[in-house]
Design goal:
alpha/beta; Rossmann fold; 5 helices; 5 strands; 56% helix; globular
């Protein structure tokens, strides 16, 4: 079974119908048919929410939250092991702290990170990335 980690970039691309939305839609389709597992770190879930809130207000943020709640996405809490890996990525790679959690979760779950965020290029040798554009 395929395993994927989504970040806020991929979620927002899907929600807004931006470039990469079709690739994310295919992953959702695979997860709904039992062919794939999808993971999302709670830090990236919060990042998606605050971006939608800041850019579109509470109504948009709630629409996004409710939309993604309908999909089989496992929201993973940031425990000590995951946080330690994220801290190591942040310390040695030029990336946001939230992005470091997405990378850490991909490594932890041996999953493919789905993103279009170029910050992840620095960890491409350590984790598998599916680039959406």
């Amino acid at each position: 079974m395929k395993r994927y980690v989504l970040d806020s970039y991929s979620l927002i691309a899907y929600a807004e119908g931006e470039r990469g939305a079709k690739e994310v839609a295919e992953i959702f389709k695979d997860s709904l048919s039992g062919k794939a597992e999808i993971f999302l770190c709670v830090i990236n879930w919060g990042e998606m929410y605050y971006i939608a809130l800041r850019e579109g207000g509470k109504e948009r943020a709630e629409i996004y939250r409710n939309t993604f709640a309908r999909y089989p996405i496992s929201v993973v809490e940031a425990n000590k092991e995951l946080t330690l890996q994220a801290a190591q990525y942040k310390a040695f790679h030029k990336m946001s702290y939230a992005d470091a959690f997405a990378a850490a979760l991909a490594k932890n779950r041996k999953a493919v990170l789905v993103t279009g965020d170029k910050e992840f290029r620095t960890v491409e040798g350590d984790i598998k990335i599916s680039w959406i554009n």
